[in-house]
Design goal:
The protein is mainly alpha-helical. The chain contains 15 helices and 10 strands. The strands form 4 sheets. The chain has a 3-stranded antiparallel beta sheet with strand order 1-2-3. It has a 3-stranded antiparallel beta sheet with strand order 6-7-8. Strands 4-5 form a two-stranded antiparallel sheet.
Amino acid sequence: MKTTDKQKPARSTFAVLFFLNTSKPNREGLCPVICRVSVDGEQRAFSIKQTCTPALWNPQAGRARGKSREANGINHAIDAARKEIVAIYERYLMSRGYVSAELIVNTAKGVGCRQTTLLALFDEHNREYEKRVGVDRDRESLNCYERTRREVAGYIRLRSGRHEGEEFVDIPLSELKKEFIEGFEFFLRTDKRRGKKNILNHSTYLKKIVRLAVSQGTIHFDPFGSHIPEQPKSKPRHHRADELEHIMTTPITDDKTRFVRDLFLFSTFTGLAHIDLRNLSGEHLRHEAGGSTWIHIKRQKTGVESNVKLLPQAIAIMEKYRNRRTGADSRIFDVPGRSMMCHYFRKLEKLCNVPLITFHMARHNFATHITLSQGMPLVTVSRMMGHTSIQTTQIYAKIVGSKLKEDMTALGARIGGKYTSTAGVAAIPDIGIMEVAVQ
């Protein structure tokens, strides 16, 4: 007896059957479970990568007998395969108006086809991205894509009138319009109560997936191309000197919070990004003849080498946690992920009475307070931070008024004796020193 899934369209007969291929048992006597798809009399079959003993198989029900662990595992795989095949059938029927058994089987096997729905493309992208984690991608970025995928799924479920836990139909890429991303942002803002920065991040990852569909030729234009997301209010890129002093000197009793504070300060004194600090190990340290210690590490983001001399403050933090690592090539710090760091940064903000702390601000602190404000040339800072272009360093750099005044005083001393004639030159009023941002 066949287990048949019948669909409404009268022009198409659709059936799914599972059976045991007893003609090809393996050495243990287990036979492969085969799925046969029938559409309008056309049949195609494929293995679902499960095996079963003939004695356990129920040919009338098309599944394994009983509730043993083996039977439950086989039946779970059968149910998942059936659900996927029905979803593929409905998707093609909705988007193309026609479907064939060969098209369904090829899609289920991932042979010679591109994903035509949004969540399916998201899943395919994330699977491929995961393979690159640890090679040229990091786990935190994958987590961002996965979070956005969950939010998009929640929005599609809401659009289809389904509740949490109920099944819903994925949206075809060909049906995406600008209104979709606008509705998605409204959903995040109202239903999920997300902030502007969070909404911008989710919109950015969603746009990347849709552009992937364009590059693959699945759709011919970017439906979100004209959409401009709302930009969050610009926040300070670096801390003021008094804020940095509070972060450094505030007593902290909780060990984990204190450890995160020390990681932030280590980055402030070295300019290392979060992922590069996670990768930092003993092999990246170079001890020079004069007694100094340098960090030589290739930035994961750009592949450019960053060379930084360890200042006494950074060395003190390393020594403080030396007993937590083993071996010369082990990681210097056991750095938490971004979400955990953010959790403790919120605690630090309250303890230190500082309005905002993010790990990226440590790099801005390094560029502003530790290097440029102390007279280090922009080109040198660019090399230390591992930037591919000096223009990137200019974005990080912000010269404060004290540094500008110091530079002008030094300039006056150098040229004071060269231009002594002031006849005919009107007095220049004192306009004061303003904070200047290097653009």
